[in-house]
Amino acid sequence: MKLQLPTVTLLMVDCVNPLKAMKVVDHCKSMVDFGAVKFLTSCDVEHENLVKINPLTTLVQYSIFMLSHAHKYIDTSHVLTVQCDGWILNPQSFDMDWLKLDFIGGLFMQQDKVGSGGFSLRSKKIMFDISKVIPSWDYTDAHSLVIQDTLGLYEDGILSVSYFAQSYKVGNNKQAADFAQAGNRNPMYFRSNPFGFHRTWQQIDFSTGVVDSSDLSKDIQSGYDFEINLL
């Protein structure tokens, strides 16, 4: 039986690689029955879950959008964000206690702290609340950079390690490791069957969902085009 997450929206926001993004969305839908599915893009493609938005062509624009506008597309209590470098591996590993949290993602690759947002679970509450304190945004790249300089962190850092995040329930390191492997090299937090992953150096068997962390010398994966084509 598929994992049932009726209070979770699957969210993909991608205006650069829509065909790959659709494959990731469909793959996640094949593993989990979500309360809703939203594929947000500015591209002229067809998909049953497509919602058109203004173009987002840079990481900074994406970050500001996620902080300021993404909550408008969510009607469930939580949202699972996925990208073309992070998706579900093992639906059987989902822990329902994560739905008591406001944010959980894999550990940052740079430090043992929760916050890798490319594959993350967030409450609508934290997304709505942060949107109220972000400056009004005109969607331009120039204005995005101004806001980003003011914030000092990308959207996942704002929602997990900033002063703002201290008022919310953010997952602990153990929960983060179980939720997703995301490039952190501390063996204490290696997991072979995490719920998902975000861009990592670890070797993943995408047919079984098993993550191999035995070779710490490997570099961060640059992309997953080949793996997406096999989904």
Explained architecture:
The chain is α/β, with parallel strands linked by helices. It has a single domain (3-229), classed as Spore Coat Polysaccharide Biosynthesis Protein SpsA, Chain A. The chain has seven helices and ten strands. The radius of gyration is 16 Å and the shape is globular. The chain starts with a strand and ends with a helix. The model has no long low-confidence stretch (mean pLDDT 96).
The strand order across the widest sheet is 3-2-1-4-6-5
CATH top level label:
Alpha Beta
Distance between the termini: 20 Å
User: What is the general shape?
Assistant: globular
Could you tell me the number of beta strands?
A: 10
- Tell me the number of helical segments per DSSP (H or I, 4 or more residues long): 7
What is the typical, i.e. mean, pLDDT?
Answer: 96
* Pattern of helices and strands: EHEEHEEEHHHHEEEEH
- The name of the CATH topology is Spore Coat Polysaccharide Biosynthesis Protein SpsA, Chain A
Residue runs with pLDDT of under 50 for 5 or more positions:
none
* Cα Rg: 16 Å
Assign the CATH architecture: Alpha-Beta Complex
Task: Outline the biggest β-sheet.
Answer: 6 strands, mixed
Helix content: 25-40%
